[in-house]
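Discussion board: Methods & Data

I've been asked by a reviewer to show the raw model output for two of the constructs in my manuscript, not just the figures. I'm not sure how much to include, so I'm pasting the format here to get opinions. Each protein appears as its amino acid sequence followed by a line of discrete structure tokens. Is this the kind of thing reviewers expect to see in a supplement, or should I convert it first? Here is construct A:
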Amino acid sequence: MIQNKYLRIPSILIVFSSFFYSNVSAFYSVTLWLTPPLVLGESIIWLVLAALSIWALKKQHTLVQFLENLKRNWIILPFLIFSGLSIFWSVYWQISLYRWVTLFCTIITGGYIGLHYDIKNIIKLLSIFGILILLVSSIYVLFIPTIGVMNYYNIHGAWKGIYWHKNHMGLIATFINILFVIKLIYSLKSNWKQVLFWSILYIYSLFFVYQSDSATAYITTVILHGVILLALVWIKFRSKIRRSHYLIALVFLILALVIILINANQLLGIFNRNTTLTGRIPMWTHLFSTYLSQRPILGYGFNAFWYLGSHRIAMQQMAGYPDQIVISDNGFIDILINTGFCGLVLFLVFYLGLWWRSIKYAIKAKDVIGIFPIVLMSFTLLANVSWSLIFENENFFMLIMISVLFCISIRNPKTSQKKEMESTNFA
């Protein structure tokens, strides 16, 4: 017990420092023009956090379990190795090295979080961090609107809070809103004060999503609410559901997708958007034909492509934007352009593997907490269709995915029991 109390503060420090620094590069107005001192400073901080995680694992006598879990979760290692090797052919090797160090440390810190906390407490920690993000962003919006509110050539009044763009803020607010949904549903088992508290936060986060004026955030929010509702219905009635019911549901899903595709223009028109995804599809076409075709197998180096001014300016001129384009607005395309088809395939080994483990975990779910991994994966899939939210602007969601991967992996029973005791102490 004394050791648990002694380690509690370092553990919380590791968690919230990791949450903060995995977002920090997305806080700046211009994310790509990072100076060498900032790059070096952030790399040192990540190395310190990784070292603290290893120290905490040794103090808790769980370093062996961490290594066993890392071996069990080998699906992330091929992409880690390949992205590291890409430094040797990167068009900007210093940036590729810096981002690889960040990814390496993210795996260590994320693995520590997932090994130390259960899903319930990961949601709790993320919810606390989400409250802080919304609080600080609200202060920016109300008192420093020149930073907190966008005033762009074609975007006026959209809330972006402490983030560099309203789409990024909108998707972060969507994720926070979903965390609050889960906390609200789970709190129905508790007293009315808990229900009231999370209800207020849920409503405000939903209002924040609306104020971001992000169509991607709107659509993602609606679909994720549907995912949670369907999952809860399934949990309640799964013993009565037969194979024929799943077949009928699949048919309805296919029909719904067909109807959506046929009426895509009208549906997107509700959000003042069209099937070009606000010019993204023409941009992607040009990106593939002009740049990817030159380096299709290995890419331009891990996270290196958009750090070259010539690439940003050329894409800006092609799209006719007043400013340089700094991301491809699709997380999977950014991985493709930076690491080629080899890197994308290796990333999908990790990504689809986590999807599979999340589905298996959700099948055993007894309440809304158990469906969080699959809700998280649904969010990353939807959010990355028209925004780069995996590792281009920040590594926050990579950190969460790694934490969840380690958390839902099969553990030694003694480790699981110890983890549950530590989680109870934290709670």
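Construct B, same format:
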Amino acid sequence: MHRLWRVKIMSCNRFRVLVVCLVAGFVAGAPLASPAASQADAGKASIQERLNRLREGLFSGTGRVNEAIKELKGILALDPGSAEGHLLLGIAYRSQGSPELMGEAIAELRQALALNSSFVPARFYLAHIYLDLGRAERAREELETALAQAPGNPQFLALLGESERQLKNPRRSLELNRQALQIDGAFAEARYYLGLALYDLGQRDEAINELERVVQSGPNAADAYLSLGTAYLEAGRFDKALEVLLQGTKIDPARSDIRIQMARAYRSKGLLAKAEEQLKLATPKGAAALPSSFSQYQQVEFDFYLEQGLVKLERGQLETAAAAFRKVLDIDPNHGPTNRYLAEVYLRQGLYARASEYAARAEKLGFPLPEDKRRLLQEKFRRKETGGHE
């Protein structure tokens, strides 16, 4: 079964507004200054005004991130004890989408927590980054601490549910996201995670229903369209898959993973020229634009070469197909279907020793050649052994 591996944080307006509200709510709830501190408060008033402006710009998408980073560094030079300043700098680093800056983002959020351990927005955003990096265990730790400080928060419950799903606990994810939806039935992100958990549990039709509700509810999030389109593909509903995936490309034309799934849908319908068009738009370089972990980028690369190999195999372009399948196996040598596909390619090329090698690997991994091809390979290989050469 093709994995719905796309579990990056939904980049929808609801998520941006949520963090703004968390930050703003914390600042608004801060204790009033004493009269003796009024002069210091007056000195910090302009700094808070600048932070408010930067916060609004970062989460509305209208701020210039590089300029925001420069200004936040200046603010922290004046007021290194500003937990909100460190939080916003961490968010700004993360929004750059650069793996090199993820460490800087974590360091800033950790500094915010060192200044105020009850500053739950920092834990929430830190958990998001840990999920970006594929560190679901660390995300779970942060969210459990945040929930101890803010019990029943639906955003924390939903993200904890997604952490559990990534830790191979989909039933626990189901429970947590249903709790979140009982508190806020319109919370699209919780419903999205619920759909992913249902899919992992093999409840594909129920998963599709939940993902359809997410898409219909209106969040402008490419991930929801990608996951729903992939689920349609698994159900053999190729036209619906193409319809939904096309909507995803309108939201984010640069998403390689959506293009790959469109290529898969076209190939499944026998439209190989259209599949190749999508693959040309989905080169692995395009995946680098995604704010994802190296493992997620590697998954995009894996899917790209697998789909390319399948299209070229159907076209009879065996050399290109074999090269693509070898790249897949460079990433995951134990991928059973690809070992079988490569065996089939070598069989058609008359390279029977190589075909036998990969057929044996595929069978060991639970993906044997079809019986007719297995008999043909055995016959051809015996003939080569008794007097021929490849």
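Answer (T.O., handling editor elsewhere):
This is acceptable in a supplement if you add a one-line summary per construct. For B, something like: The CA atoms of residues 144 and 357 lie 48 Å apart.
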